[in-house]
Design brief:
Radius of gyration: 20 Å
CATH architecture of the largest domain: Sandwich
CATH topology of the largest domain: Jelly Rolls
Distance between the termini: 54 Å
CATH class of the largest domain: Mainly Beta
Number of strands: 16
Helix content: 40-55%
Largest sheet: 4 strands, antiparallel
Length: 343
């Protein structure tokens, strides 16, 4: 089975020994049409590698009893990864649309492997980050085409700093460069290489997307990024050009981590790599969930003024088990700000 896994185009980071372990540990099954692999809102005990066939990913709508198919996944795709990374209930239902062969890997087996093999853990989270980034690119393009602007979400740096440790953050502060950028500065240009990963310390950034409309190039604002946000992460994990432009909407202060320097650190420090790619995966998952809610998808989304139900987990609600590390992350962000300002 390992030779078959190596032929899956979507798997770009995992190495042959990784795929050997997955093929030897996972369970292969042939699922008939209509089989539900993952049920929205129900615990998922495994992630799945689609070997042959295809599945439909459907999600409930806040204003309808009918599910809406949002994407189809075929050979080489991984499903169930979002719930594995952020430990939340699945936000979508995954059902086969034709006879499909899948390899399932239990969460417990995968977690144990990661604890024992840090190199594997780093590569696996890097693989997931790349897959999630590609999916976010597709969703962002769809939001732009439909003129949907996401609202403000939890500051993404909190996801990152909740996973990284103090030494990781100290390295970023020591090796990063402070950038004082005036209004109008273009940090990232769409379809061009990205030089750095940016942490927005103060100010406001506009995310802009250019597209052809009736033969004319039109630029639309996708979102705003406030203090505590991260930009440039998608191009970093995909090692590709930018999918949107980032421009300073006001005078802004940023911490820039050059991509090449960061990649060298990730290569020689596998513990840092595991934490970093897992944190980026959490950031990307939150952006995906936020985008789906903005499109009206999601089992439950809180509406201002409504009474919260104690037995319902809302799509835009911060789980209780995330609050404590989030508070720690906030403390780390303030520490970083204070240290940078002293320098």
């Amino acid at each position: 089975m390992a030779p078959l896994l190596t032929q899956l185009d979507n798997l770009k980071v995992l190495q042959t020994p990784d795929l050997d372990w997955i093929s030897q540990t996972g369970a292969i099954s042939k699922e008939p049409t209509g089989s539900v692999l993952i049920q929205e809102g129900q615990p998922a005990d495994a992630i799945y590698f689609i070997l042959q066939g295809s599945v439909a990913v459907s999600i409930s709508q806040s204003n309808s009893d009918l599910d809406q198919e949002i994407v189809r996944c075929g050979s080489g795709e991984i499903i169930g990864e979002m719930s594995f990374v952020d430990d939340r209930l699945p936000s979508a239902t995954v059902k086969t649309v034709e006879p499909t062969e899948v390899l399932s890997l239990s969460r417990r087996q995968l977690q144990l492997k990661m604890e024992r093999d840090p190199d594997f853990a780093a590569r696996f989270y890097q693989e997931l980050a790349g897959i999630l980034s590609a999916r976010l690119r597709s969703l962002s393009k769809l939001l732009a085409q439909n003129k949907i602007v996401p609202g403000q979400a939890l500051r993404k740096v909190l996801f990152l700093f909740a996973v990284l440790n103090d030494n990781d953050i100290d390295w970023m502060v020591t090796r990063g460069s402070l950038l004082d950028a005036p209004t109008g500065t273009v940090l990232i240009q769409q379809d061009q290489p990205v030089e750095a990963l940016y942490f927005l310390l103060k100010g406001n950034l506009a995310v802009l997307f250019s597209m052809m409309v009736d033969g004319q190039t039109t630029e639309r604002e996708l979102a705003r990024r406030a203090s505590g946000e991260i930009v440039g992460e998608m191009s970093f994990v995909e090692a590709g050009n930018a999918s949107a432009s980032i421009k300073c909407a006001e005078n802004s202060l940023l911490l820039a981590l050059p991509q090449q320097m960061l990649r060298e650190k990730l290569q020689r420090d596998r513990g840092f790599a595991t934490r970093f790619y897992r944190a980026l995966s959490l950031v990307l998952i939150d952006r995906l969930r936020e985008g789906l809610v903005q499109r009206g998808f999601g089992q439950k989304a809180y509406v201002e003024g409504q009474q919260l139900a104690s037995d319902v987990e809302y799509e835009d609600e911060i789980p209780l088990d995330v609050l404590e590390p989030t508070l720690l992350a906030g403390t780390r962000f303030k520490w970083m700000m204070n240290r940078l300002q002293r320098n």
